Amino acid sequence: MVIDSIYGWAQTAPSKTALVWNGQPVSYLRFARGIEAVRHAMAAHDLPAGSTAIVAIQGLLDGWTTVLALRSLGLQTVAVSDLDEALGLGLEQVSCVVTDPHKAGQSRFMADGWPRARLIRVPVTIYSALSDGPAPHKTVASAAVGAHLLYTSGTTGTYKLLLQDGAHEDERNARRAASYGLGANSNWYVGYLGLWTAVGYKMPMAVWQQGGCVVFDQRPTWAREFLRSAPCDTVLIPQMVKELLEVVAQEPGERGPGFWRLYVTAGFLPGNQASEVLARLTTALGITYGSTELATPALESRVSSLQDLHWLAPAAGRVVEIVDEQGALCADDVEGQLRIKLTPLDCRAYLNDAEASRKVFRMGYFYPGDMAVRRADGRIRVLGRSADVLNLQGRKISVAPVEQALQDWLAVPAVCIFSGICADGQDEVVVALETSRQPSAEQFDALRRQLVGFDRVRLVLRAEFPRTTTGTSKVNRKALRRQVFASEQTSAGPEDVL
Fold first, then answer.
1. Tell me: the pLDDT tens digits for 342-379?
2. Which CATH architecture has domain 222-385?
3. Which end of the chain has the least Cβ crowding within 10 Å, N or C?
4. What is the CATH superfamily name and number for domain 389-497?
């Protein structure tokens, strides 16, 4: 377990920086002593091993310290951004809810969700009263290590629980470290991504096992602070890249690119943003395609030109295939379902959801629900969700490439295209733009040309799209679809018929 690695580094390199939280460095020695202090405090509550501990702590330093301490006592942990979210997870055998004073109104949640659980409040900061002392010794037997639960909602808003067991933790971390080239000298930026996200949980674990440093920043000015300091290697979601570029745009004069590794995941960058990244942030831009279900990414691309932006190669150790509805391999340039061969380190089922598990994990493969196409050189383009297709005179068209083209051309944060039935019973296509700015007459004409062949096309503008709350801020297409088709009756927001 990673706690053993942290305690080991505290013994051999006590002054080495384990993490930086909001600009404050914490050494491996101090980190280990903080975990040990919480271990002793939690042990006094006599919480049963194997039960579930819900951790709702605002600060990532205290949150990580608490989760690692609880897991070392054999508890299964799940970190949540708020207790409202925890209520929707269907958690069983909850023995405690651990919060800090920033989380208000816990009593209501305890009564509604976990009446038999113990409410445990930690101080505002665990480290404020921590005294100096020697490094703690490794006290955790691998068999006793508790699991951690991640949850994912994709673009549907429906949560699925995934078990990250302790038995294979070291191997998963080692594989991830090899995938990203992590070592003892790594400085890895995580920013504000919480333990309830795949990137926010998996990357720090891999860095600490190698003895590197993790940088957390939950300040509103995180993007400005990132650019002021020597930039670290990082995996960011598209929204975070957008925030960085907005700060760069406010700087006077031209800014040349550096060379620090930036990987983008949980969505694709628009072409205009990728160009800005290469020109003004870093020339070491990578795109990865993975899932919470997978231990390491399935597809990746090192972007040297925009032609590489959306065409990804299978990652090392990954078998990625495109198949038809009968499971036969598709020929080059033929669209089909994406599937990824599972490794022993990947998840193979959702917790307490046999039906969803049967659909997604089949015959040793993971089916993420995406359409894709492979070209002759073996590179793959993900085309979007299998359910997100338009039917034009019996021909199914994946919407993702059209959405990406419109997003690039209009320079808007997001575009979603849906087909459905309008209020008067006619088939229609709805183009939703995340923008408060009305397209120009020239842009209207271009939209019509992109969607030629459809009898009725409706344009809907929204200043903000609904997004999932699991931390990666994906567009909640299910909620957005309800909005745009309800808008015929409610007239919510500006819209036009093209």
1. 999 999 999 989 998 999 999 999 999 888 899 999 99
2. 3-Layer(aba) Sandwich (3.40)
3. C
4. ANL, C-terminal domain (3.30.300.30)
